[in-house]
Amino acid sequence: MNTFSYAQEIVNELQRSVAQLGAGEAEQMAELLLRSGRVFVAGAGRSGLMGRAFAMRLMHAGKDAYVVGETVTPGIGPGDVLVLGTGSGETASLLSMAVKARAVGAAVVAVTLSPESSIGLLADHVVKLPGAPKEQADGGRITIQPMASLFEQTLLLFYDAVILRIMEETGQTSTRMFGNHANLE
Q: Where is the SIS domain (predicted)?
């Protein structure tokens, strides 16, 4: 296979993955974020990178959004939402965040491969994404891609779809959102 063929197969995998997304789960998540106070986003590794991109777009859309672990991130409280992107739903640091968020009255959203996981069972709202856990992605069983790449890519697409729904509900446009774009670059 050449590079173009690999890229085409990745696109095909993403089309199959997106076709499995539950529209109701995405809609409920967008509604929760719209009525929430602040939004806190976390994930480990590459899932965390997708979360950072999501937090940036939430900020562009006018939400008070924070990435957990940054020095400027305030404390979470009642009326706030913690969004966790986690393939396994068992990452200890994310589970600890979910427990703490619930203890102080914040809502928890798990976007995961594993709704029956510890984080999934603790969350107020669960979005099940299709994909392969990193330990099962093996040469074409579910994906040709290494480890959890399909999950992470689907996570980013899902997050962007939620942003588009929030934009629609709030009358946002890319032009209006650009007013919140960084200007010290």
A: 29-172
Helix (H, G, I), strand (E, B) or coil at 111: strand
User: What's the distance, CA 184 to chain centroid?
Assistant: 27
pLDDT, tens only, 92-149: 999 999 999 999 999 999 999 999 999 999 999 999 998 666 555 444 467 877 777 8
Q: Which CATH superfamily is domain 24-134+147-176 in?
A: Glucose-6-phosphate isomerase like protein; domain 1 (3.40.50.10490)
* Order of all β-strands in the sheet with 125-128: 65-67, 39-43, 81-86, 107-112, 125-128
78 token code pair? 């009642």
pTM passes above 0.85: yes
Active site amino acids: 152
